[in-house]
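User: Batch of two.

Assistant: Item 1 of 2:
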Amino acid sequence: MSIQSGGRSGGGDRRHFPPGPGRSGHGSLDLSMIIVGTSGWQYRDWRSAFYPAKLASRGWLEYYAERFRAVEVNNTFYRLPPRSTFTEWRQRAPDEFEYAVKMSRYLTHIRRLRDPVEPVSRFMTAAGGLGEKLGPVLFQLPPTLTADVEVLDAVLSRIAGRARVAVEPRHPSWWDQRIRATLDRHGAALCWADRDGRPVTPLWRTADFGYLRMHHGTARPRPRYGPAAIRSWVDRVSSTWTADERVYVFFNNDHGGAAIVDAIAFAAAAAKRGLPVGRTPDTVRPGLE
């Protein structure tokens, strides 16, 4: 089967979680369809390029959160912070801000999704400190982990109703209609992923929201994305979800501030198409053009 197959499916037994101010269609004041951000905010080479040179790093989160609508937190994958850290992050961001958080590698890479009860409970207890600012929970799977419908079903059952969930498999055995049906039944999004300007996952719609990760492009200076690649992803998103749904787009190509430039370009391209876009800077700082 082609990994390009998509379409407006995604019915299934939808699991809903309590509404919060950052969630379109759940009593939110922010009805943005496209929420663009970056994978992390603490990069030294963003000083002067994005953050003012004289701004201490302890102020970077506030600076970022005033300009973007969401961030994907990757360090939760390597080491799960205490609940107090999540609570502090919640307090430091505007009301409508969202944190997408990456599930601990202890569950995804060490346990390889098996015996999920304790790891999911521990993770969600800690991440619960974000309160209404908790966005999707991302499960990025090891590239050597092959598909297992029963294991996936057990994991998604443990987190059902507690948060939106996106799953990013990286082994081709997952591109199976049984996996698609399992994601759909739990209302979990298949994470769309791009490398080198091309999709590396099927373009399945399995939830009432979307999640896209842009890992690295081929435009110069690398790893930026060119205008054509960005427009093609805006087209795919707009043809799969409607304006009253939500799609999270995170740029993971942090080197040299490429993620900042590309996030702004994606938001501009989406706005040009008439799509509602969440808060994003209008321009980049001098030196990032």
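Item 2 of 2:
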Amino acid sequence: MKVGFIGLGNVGGKLAGSLLRNNFDLTVRDLDKNLTQSFRDLGAKVVNSAKELAEQVDLIITCLPSPKICAEVMEAEDGVISGLSENKIWLEMSTTDEAEIKRISKKIIAKKAIPLDGPVSGGCHRAATGNIAIFVGGERKAFDKILPALTVMGRKILHTGELGTATILKVITNYLASVHLVALGEAWTVAKKSNLDLTKAYKGIAVSSGNSFVHETESQVILNGSYNINFTMDLVLKDTGLFDDLAKKLGAPLEISPKVVDIFKDGQKKYGSRAWSSMIVKRMEDINNIDFRAKGFPEELTDNEPEEKGYEI
């Protein structure tokens, strides 16, 4: 199977790297020529347009920052859709909007190609080692066909059902992660002002009913002071906005979600759209004139689990 990958950013570059590391025939496309050159040096092919990439491969993967950018890459005159033909598969691995996935997919199907949505979850450090989780929605037969590629990019692979279901599930999980992160800011505030040993507090939370994946990972770079989670404030706002908008479309009044959106808007205003998302806890540090520093925590997360072939759950 020939694979094409468009979008070599924080997550996409690591997913594409797993494909290349596992000897897939890989063609890449990104506006950043430094990124594409690094892949060329490792043996990947590089093309000059998304159309050219789609013409040359069996599976086209997009992993892009926003629904708007994805639409441009797909629908431009020299975009992916122009290069599609019968039985090619498009896998959208960005965190995006379910309605937008379905809108673009109608154009994919018109070309007799097959659309799938396949967002990932688990952090950039796990994307780097092929241990991230992947949700996939869409035709089961197409899912089975690309499963060999999925199982080198990710560890646990879930077929969520029809097209769009993976995107909805991903938006839900990102919302929960954002809530956990905001709550951690308040938890660390109380711990600090109570004069707790923050290293011991970290360990205590990790073995308690209050534990979460967000605590186990993001609390480490918060306590270090780097906040470097390889995910930025603007991306969290995109994701929390998608969740809040979906709830509104469903006619489901929510209480916490609108507040979380407002908190991240304030964080972006204070620290910038490209600030690390973990810096949202700095609002509490600044308000309370404290910091959450503790010794022995890493500046950046690394995945210490061995790389293993993924599997469907």
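The two ends are 23 Å apart (CA to CA).
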